[in-house]
Amino acid sequence: FLHKLGVPKKWSILDVYGLDSELLAIIPRPVLAIILLYPISSKIEKTKEEQVETKDSKNDAAESVYHIKQSISNACGTIALLHSVANNLDVIQLEDGFFKKFLEDTKGLSYIERGEHLEKAQDIIDTHMESAQEGQTEAPAEDVEVYHHFVAFVHKDGSLYELDGRKSVPINHGSTTPETLLDDAARVCKEYMEHDPNEVRFTVVALAANE
Fold it and tell me: Alpha helix locations (H) across the chain?
């Protein structure tokens, strides 16, 4: 999916097999973003709502953070990938094409306006659908309720941001650097797991160099 969007092949999505330092150390650097797949539960959702309210996220969010509303059903994985790439254009040299043009056209728009543009971005939607159909398991239909969700973690202007297409603002999780992004995001992922310790359906991947 990433490469169809124009992301160079030197960048790939890699599995993160564990959040302990020994397992994080085997992930190739640099790491540009971390994506967490988590089960939707009342415990986790309550915590996320509190974070949005208490972290004063509107004031904390840097102007340079690219945040887009998820207005397409069951596309949270695609939104997480878009967030991961769009917030790393200083490192990722996108090839000319529909995705690069989409980001340029929506750069100055609001979170909601970007989501509205995505609804009309047929090239991106088609690529999303093609990639979903190529997966090992059948992708859910748009009207089927799903019970898991993807969020992305990125470094921007010295802060660790969690980007969720269902939330109106990014969540600032404190300071980080490009070098410590993986470890700092892993800490937040662990906090997710601690909120629902009996749940095991968590998956973490990284957008990182593969060479």
Answer: 21-24, 42-54, 57-60, 76-86, 98-106, 111-120, 122-134, 181-195
Catalytic residues: 76, 149
DSSP code for 140: P
Nearest alpha carbon to residue 34 among 211, 210, 209, 205: 205
Q: How far apart are the first and last CA of the chain?
A: 18
Phi, psi of 23 (to 5 degrees): -80, -30
**CATH topology for 2-54+61-209?**
Ubiquitin C-terminal Hydrolase UCH-l3 (3.40.532)
**pLDDT averaged per 10 residues in sequence order, the chain, 211 residues:** 94 96 96 93 62 53 88 82 97 96 95 94 86 53 62 97 93 96 97 81 94 69
Q: Report in angstroms the alpha-carbon separations of 53 from 18, 106, 133, 191.
A: 30, 26, 37, 18
Going by C-beta distance under 8 Å and a sequence separation of 6 or more, which residues neighbour residue 134?
none
Pull the structure tokens for residue 192. Answer: 């997710």
- Give the tens place of pLDDT for each residue, 33-55: 999 998 876 665 666 666 665 55
